Amino acid sequence: MAGSLCRRESSKQALRGLTRRDGVMNTDATGNRGYLVKNLYTDNRPANILKMLGTKSGLTVAAIAQELGVSERTIRNDIRQLNEDLGDGASIEGVQGRYSLRIFDPDAYKKAYEKICDTDGMFDTPRGRQNYIFAELMRADAPLLTDELAYEMNVGRTTLVSDLKKLREELTPFGLKIVGKTSKGMILHGKELDIRTYVLENSFDAIYSDYPLDQEIREMIRAELQQKAFEKQVGIQFERYLILMMDRFLTGHFIGKLTDAYYNLTANAEFFRVNGIIDRIAGLLHVDFPVEEKIFTFLPIAGMRTPADLGSVEEMELDETIGPLSEKIMAQIREELGVSIDPRDFAEEFSYHLMFMLNRLRFKIRQPNVMLEELRTKFPLAYEMSGIAARVIEREEGLEVNTDERGHLATYFGVFLEENNLGQRRPFRIAVICGTGRVTARLISVQLKKIMDSQVQIRTMSDTAVSPETLETYDVVLSTVDLPFRPDKPVIRIREIFDERELKQKLEKVRYWDSVDMPLLDDNQFIMSSLLDEDRVFFFEKGRSYEDALSEMVEILADEGQIDPGFGDRLAEREEKGSMVFDNGVAIPHGIQTATNRMVLAIGIFEQPVQHRGQEVRVIFFMALPEESDDDDMLMIRVYDELLEISRDTDMLQAISRSSNYPELLRVLYKKA
Prior knowledge:
The chain contains 26 helices and 16 strands. By secondary structure, it is α/β, with parallel strands linked by helices. It folds into five domains: 4-117, Arc Repressor Mutant, subunit A, CATH 1.10.10.10; 215-313, no CATH class; 322-424, PTS-regulatory domain, PRD; 429-510, Rossmann fold; 528-669, Mannitol-specific EII, Chain A (3-Layer(aba) Sandwich). The strands form five sheets. Strands 12, 13, 14, 15 and 16 form a five-stranded mixed beta sheet that branches. Strand 6 (177-181) and strand 7 (185-189) form a beta hairpin. Helix 13 crosses helix 14 (291-302) and helix 18 (380-397) packs across helix 19 (403-424). Residues 1-43 have low confidence and may be disordered.
């Protein structure tokens, strides 16, 4: 966005606009000049330096700095950067303090110069035009006329009016308004803090990509932050907040009075470090930054992502409310899903994550999550847990958790679930029996290692040496030949070269062999299908209510002894505490049963969707979880993941809803509908 004057330098209107928005000269009590902060959005300083040196040789740094209204240090930094950008085509060289432009390759210099000066695409997109309009509005000290803006941007009035409409809509969530009439001038109305929040989330790079932050200041910031081993992104965010604060404050846009929550941040141990950095910068600029501006600059540290090395934040004492909040989140997950998770080694890290996250939510610090959709897809149960955590945080703290932060929470819950699973798993042992020689057995072993994790133990055996006793300690047997006896363990018949994806699915099912009745290892990817039989699938005709359908399922399962007689009452109590309806009309009522030590799964399918507490229900996945079981939680977590995956697959749900009998349902679960 910088450099718009490259193609408009002869425009009197543009020059008048530049004069109007030049900035302010800061002078301390002794009359010493500070830095003049210019609006770089409409003044491409590197291009202007090249133009000055292109028309006159032997200029001093002081002369260039005075002409452009910046410090000599800034010009030296610009020259250093320009020499990198010019490459082999040209160079700015100084002799006895006087600088000249020397061109060695005219074509290469022309391309480099055009790139430095290029603004042709600036106004070709609505986003670019909106960034420009907002920058002009936020820096204007008088109403802006649409005709002037259209002239500067070289666009039609109709286009500008359309861009203004889109910009107004985008500003609304930030509490900002563009007030006034296009014929009489417009101004930006709103709090300074909200203006800065909008800039950081939407247009910082467009407006401040070439801001002249002195190299000395950059190096000082990096040295200070490196002492704490903060991650690189924290330093980048800190510079962004610092640049924005300096530009706004030094051009007369003060942040003003803040709420008490902001002032409470000054008690943070790391605030004193930031306070020292800002005071040193203030000394270089010959200004005094008030505490409010220092607090604003501290926000990216108060709301940073939890670093890999917790030692870098150990001085930041955890808020006393974080521990109870974490416990309430875990208790609510246990209440709603029946899943108990133990953070183990991540307890402290999760607590810091909650503290930093609450700061981000309180102070509107956005932390984008680029893995959001992948998290929803790969870890559906963890994502559902994050939704429960979000509701607890909103209830306890009065803060709405956005989708980005929900994704960050899901990451932690995904780690908790995987860590718990790994802690419960014993080494998985595979016996490979081959009747065609050692080399073939090794070929099978190599293929297996590609699809199994490092904890899996694989042993190859000859068909002539195998016996029932040698297979007792293995979880599964893979064989290329028919065995002369029937092992107690599951056997998968394979070829020397096999379908890796199909075999991996079957091996995943083997992990649950002792937990479910699994007569054979087929290519159905759903473990849940092994928990079903024809008596556990219900089809409800048109007109049946959700309550009646659920009561019928409970009654029949209780009569069969699969759940205890009191299960229905406990389920009703659970329903009163919160909805069990998930995405796309899927209900997952669940509770603890004491009749058996096995999980009970049943499915109810409505001929037509029904309403339950204002939500539509098409399919019921009924889960009765054992109060005590010799099995671990792996099966429950796996089934939850599968049910939540189905709840987000609209095509599969429609196919399930169209099922009218048990075989048709199985075909859907085989993905052969």
